[in-house]
Amino acid sequence: MPKTNTSHFMRRILTILLFMGMIISPIPRPAAANDLTPLSITLEGYDYPYPVSFLPLSTEGQDLKMAYMDVQPRGGGNGKTVVLLHGKNFFGAYWQKTIAFLADNGYRVVVPDQIGFGKSSKPNIHYSFHALAANTKKLLDTLGIKEVTVVGHSMGGMLATRFALMYPETATRLVLENPIGLEDYRPIVPFIPVDEQYRAELNATAEGILAYHRTYFVNWRPEFGAYAEVAARQKLSGEFPRLAMSSALTYEMIYEQPVCHEFGNVKAKTLLIIGQADRTVVGKARVKKELLPQVGQYPELGRKTARQIPRARLVALDNAGHIPHMEQTEKFHGALLDFLKEQD
Fold it and tell me: Which residue segments constitute the domains of the chain, with CATH numbers given?
């Protein structure tokens, strides 16, 4: 094999190993730009585990499309529906194992990509949890679904809470998996304007993205790197600045629209599933060092929130970080199914 081809081959192998988590290093090695192929900001060509449909929406004079999966139960089903809401740095496909588990147990499963995420449109609009909740309600109305259990992870937990507050007749049960926003970030995280957050999104690197994803887990496994690779490949798209702006705007939404002050108004029967090793704080890099031991303390935040929500109980999962449904899948599924089967 010619020397130039050998060099290119070795670079590709190193990149693959990097994203599979097989190179052990405290600082992930950078991947050369030509080792990753560009990926559309709306994930064209990226396969989801189930067929994807689109709901047309109109927002602020813009015609948009909201992607979603609507997975029917295996067998006859039990007539119940679960909605799965993704986190900020993810999209509906990362619920793959949970979708299959719920469908196998008789549940219809609806999994939207919120506007600004996944295969959905990436507009420059005013993002709000109220608007995202209204979009989700329109999707359910279109599908003819009247009652659901809403499961929200990370940012999806903030959205699920807002949905339950806005539509208590629809969200009869609520599951919050390591939601962000269990504390109000405004007093602890210094404000930055959208333009500064936008520049930070533009300047993110493949190795930085992977390093951040590693912080989600107690025990890293090779398959977890797949979602970091998606984000790194999207950076190579000619449309990436548009995705970077929508990401900056959704950061602003999280920062400026807390839901934790309204937990006492939630009427739905609620389950909190909290990975005990999680220390996530949105904007953590800007928190003063002396405050870090006091913020993002999910064990205590979970207990506090369970006391605030009138009909809530807590399941604490040891040896799990920010994404229990990926890291402690069986335990997460067991707790979720037990809750779904409980009598009101």
Answer: 40-341 (3.40.50.1820)
